[in-house]
């Protein structure tokens, strides 16, 4: 499974892009997206997905 970003809640701050250990998050058409093929939910690197941890808006980075 992978995480996704709720675009209507995203403030486009960029915090998640730099925290992703898999480089699965990128800016596309003025919105951040998570590539589900690269997203591992940070398994093996962190206990919790880092996009959700660093996002300033609660419930913006959520399981897909």
Question: What does the model show?
Answer:
This protein has 64 residues and is an alpha+beta fold. 16% of the residues lie in helices and 22% in strands. It is built from two helices and four strands, in the order E-H-E-E-H-E. The strands form two sheets. It has a two-stranded antiparallel sheet. Strands 2-3 form a two-stranded antiparallel sheet. Strand 2 and strand 3 form a beta hairpin. The longest helix is centred in the N-terminal third of the chain and has 5 residues, at 15-19. It is globular and about 30 Å long. 25% of the residues are buried.
Radius of gyration: 10 Å
Instruction: State which percent range the strand residues make up.
Output: 15-25%
Multimerization status: single chain
> Mean of residue pLDDT?
96
What composes the largest sheet? 2 strands, antiparallel
The total count of strands amounts to 4
> Count of helices?
2
Query: Which structural category do the helix and sheet elements fall into?
Result: alpha+beta
Unreliable sequence segments: none
At a glance:
The chain is of the alpha+beta class and 64 residues long. The chain has helices at residues 15-19, 50-54; strands at 3-5, 25-28, 31-34, 61-63.
Question: What descriptive keywords fit this protein?
Answer:
64 residues, alpha+beta, two-stranded antiparallel ribbon, 4 strands, 22% strand, globular
């Amino acid at each position: 499974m992978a995480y996704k970003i709720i675009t209507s809640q995203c403030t486009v701050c960029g915090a998640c892009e730099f925290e992703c250990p898999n480089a699965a998050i990128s800016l596309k058409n003025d919105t951040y997206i998570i590539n589900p093929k690269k997203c591992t939910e940070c398994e093996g690197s962190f206990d919790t997905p880092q996009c959700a941890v660093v996002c300033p808006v609660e419930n913006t980075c959520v399981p897909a």
